[in-house]
């Protein structure tokens, strides 16, 4: 499975590398007021992809901040310390406790 993933990664890399080699012609991007940018097409595509990532991340920032503020206001539960580890022989012979329906937390049903 590990070799199959490396083979897939290599195929994606060589496909993108061939795309970059085949698109070395100059492309011109025209901006406002008569300005333009002339660069190889692969750089223009890469810049558009990076710009899309930046705009997408900036668009998600207010939501992230809102969720962080809401999570910071939640009360924190007291941390429980794990029980000490019992010897393996004692753990193997210990009876398994049974769980009844009253021991389980209540499940809330939500309709769609």
Terminus-to-terminus distance? 40 Å
Task: Compute the CA-based radius of gyration.
Answer: 29 Å
Give me the side-by-side strand order of the main sheet: 1-2
- What is the succession of H and E elements? HEEHH
State the total count of DSSP E strands.
2
Number of helices: 3
What is the averaged pLDDT score? 81
- Give the overall shape, derived from the CA principal axes: elongated
Provide the helix percentage: 40-55%
Which stretches are low in confidence, meaning pLDDT under 50 for 5 or more residues running?
none
Strand count, sense and barrel status of the largest sheet are:
2 strands, antiparallel
What is the percentage of strand-forming residues? 5-15%
Please sum up the structure shown.
This protein is mainly alpha-helical and 112 residues long. 54% of the residues lie in helices and 9% in strands. It has a domain at 2-75.
Provide a descriptive summary of the structure in words.
By secondary structure, the chain is mainly alpha-helical. The chain has a domain at 2-75. The chain is 54% helix and 9% strand. The chain contains three helices and two strands, in the order H-E-E-H-H. It has a two-stranded antiparallel ribbon with strand order 1-2. Strand 1 and strand 2 (36-40) form a beta hairpin.
